[in-house]
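Record pair follows.
FIRST:
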Amino acid sequence: MIDLRSDTVTRPTPAMREAMYTAEVGDDVYGEDPTVNRLEERAAEVMGKQAALFLPTGTMGNTIAIKLHTQHGQEVICESRCHILNYELSMMAWFAGCVARPIATRDGILTWETIRPEIRPLGPHAAPTGLIEVEQTNNLSGGTVYGLDVLRGIAEGAAALGLPVHMDGARVFHAATYLGVPVREIAQYADTVMFCLSKGLGAPAGSMLAGSRQQMDSGRLLRKRLGGGMRQAGILASAGLIALEQMPLRLQEDHDNARSIGESLAAIEGITVIPVQTNIVIFDIAGTGMTSHDLSAELRARAIIANSFGPTSIRMVTHYDVTAAQCMEAVDAVREIVSKKATGYAAQ
């Protein structure tokens, strides 16, 4: 099976499995798991922050960050296709008591110029702005990347108004690879950063939230409230350490594979591809006369899995467990299916 649904489907590497088997553990709720402690220290160092917190999921990390920065009844400015608004079960409302102020953009990238007019001051009518959130990379826009100048503009504008910035950096290491900079150069423009160990970096589970030490101390209590006290979590943290140290070094391979998929699909009549920057390929097949459901079903019959992203859109995500040859096999299958469909129309 060639699984291009997401980079969350990877299996632990042999090195991760060995590390998990031999992991030194303790009770993390008591702060006594040495492997978790090492992972948190290293994550903070890599991100250029004072401290970090190990979490079971990225959704929990974003939920905690929003709660740390806001008060009930405030708004969170975010891009209209962002993960916290579309894929996290309204946790900013359910847990933090906030509502989203979404801004639609062409490419999933907010700028200070688009943000500034949407900021609400404290007053008798509008809910005040409590937080600005950016998603690096933007998943639903095709893995698009915030440039450093754009992030700097947002950070400086927000600071001038006393507003915090949170970065949903689920795939921030992909952004660092694309920009060719250390990840801390991206993270410096946000007060808190969440990143996933299990997206792209290949760990079996886990995410990190990084920020100030005071924020992470408060975040640890919020993690407990959300059921995130994991006890002997060093078994997972050991794989997370390998994901953090080794797996970013190979992300360019995923980018190259994604670009190859995008370029090859764009050459098929009736298919339009969103420009590929990182490891996500989103393409529209409306011009082929097929629906995404139909194409996905045909692909699955050929042992290839890809997610529908709308009535005529499909997403393919490259990762550690798919090779360049398998990526081209998937493209060949799409070409064959579309050609067969076109031949059927001609026969009619």
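SECOND:
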Amino acid sequence: MINYPFIPDARVGWNRYALKKAQELINSEKIDCIITTGPPHSTHLVGLALKKKNSLTWIADFRDPWREVYYNELFKKSDRADKKDLQLEQEVLKKADYITTVGPSLKRLLANKIKGEENKIKVFHNGFDHELLASVSQQHYKTFTLAQIGVFTSKQPYESYIHFLKQLARKTSFNLELAGNVEEFILQEIDDIDGVNLINHGKVSHAKAISIMKSSHLLTNCLPLTKEAELIISGKLMEYISTGNPILIIGEKDGDAGTLVKDNDAGEVFLPNEVEQMVDFALHVKSEMHSEKNTKYPVQFTRENISKSLSKFLSEL
């Protein structure tokens, strides 16, 4: 572990400059409502200071948990530093007029820290850009094609994923398209599997990533093997759902991501040890790859509609 002297995070040194400029803008523009967003959660300390100095409404937006965020496990904190971190989190949660976040599990986590004030926490999901989705071209692959988009590291259930690929390759040949940062050893293990035609794109543009998603027959997603995995609903997953292509998730079945996929009939969620079931699902998807595709997407999750909901919430304050 690395000793971690910054509380709550290494971005906190920026706060004094942000606070000074924010106060100037509040004075000159007569601003009466501010939003701080984190991580980095040190940004919320700017909101806390501004709330104390001004008569305004403060919304603290949590895209991830504070103390439970996964990278906190990498740093060693003294008891004194940990106590200070807890005190800051509590003060932010209690002094903010409203708290916004991205999913029901994270809302519950935050609500348990400020019992009796749960009603001030509002959920606004990450969304997807439906205009970008419509503008991106789709390839029509004849070969059954899987896609794994985004960061892929040892923090995810890569062993289960590789086992799944090996078992699937024994029953059928297929293409696998990777896009994003993939740890080299994972890439090598996948490349060594007979029967898998690997296409590694590396880092790609957002539009290219969407094109790969739209063109593939099965989209895969490996949730991190961390305590807060059940809280995660990534923007990538929302884009997966928007394509209408089946999704295979390896992770917690009752977490927010799994629940979202099941509630929208977008795919299946499997525990890391359910490799045989993953293979059966993939083969089922292959058997229907030439069927008419579902072109409908959950319109409530477009960024436009989520922004409208947020705008309505702000206008009613």
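COMMENT: Residues 177 and 221 are 13 Å apart (CA to CA).
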